[in-house]
Amino acid sequence: MEAKHDVPEETLDPDKAFKVYLQQSKRASLDLSVASRGNLIIWGVAWLVGYGALWVSARQTTAAPEPWAFVVFGVCLAGAFVLSAVLGARSARQVSGPSALAGALFGWAGFLAFGGGMTMTAIICLRYGLSGEATGVLYNAVAALILGILYLTGGALWSDRTMYIVGATMIVLGVIGTVIGVPTGYLAMALIGGGLMIAQYGYETWRRRRVGTPPSPEADHA
Known about the structure:
By secondary structure, the protein is mostly helical. The protein has one domain (28-209). The chain is 81% helix and 0% strand. It has helices spanning 14-61, 67-94, 98-127, 132-157, 161-180, 184-211. The longest helix has 48 residues, at 14-61. The protein is globular and about 50 Å long.
């Protein structure tokens, strides 16, 4: 019988292993940034169109916005929630582990926070008989506060400066809105809030294209 020769196992090069790890980490970071940038454009457009409709209606009637404006605003928010959920689900499939779980929990946090916050605001307005202008100011402040806290939390969770800046700006806008009232507050939310998120989306898209997508780990073995 022929003697069997042991086949030496392939040794793992520490430098190559670390390089592959860095590439995979950067790829996962870019996958998460897709969700972050996508949420910026989704909510930016929803904020611009929704609050723009409220401002146009209130400005024309010199009173509370008409029902059609609230319908447009509600559709924009609902559409933003659905699109954000779809985007989050797709991004989660590209990332495994704690990052995927964090992204899913963050998405549900937004849904629960907005749903609960708007419901509580409606109950307060009905129970205490707030006037049209007071109702508009309260809804404005609560919406800005919720979105601001969500983006501040997301920015801190993923070390995303863009999300953090947007969140801080929304908090400031909420304070400004309580001072200037409506309908001017609607316009500020539409142009500054929505405009900032759209502008940040453009900047992040430009920055990502400038940096480029990292090569796949398999390319090093080709």
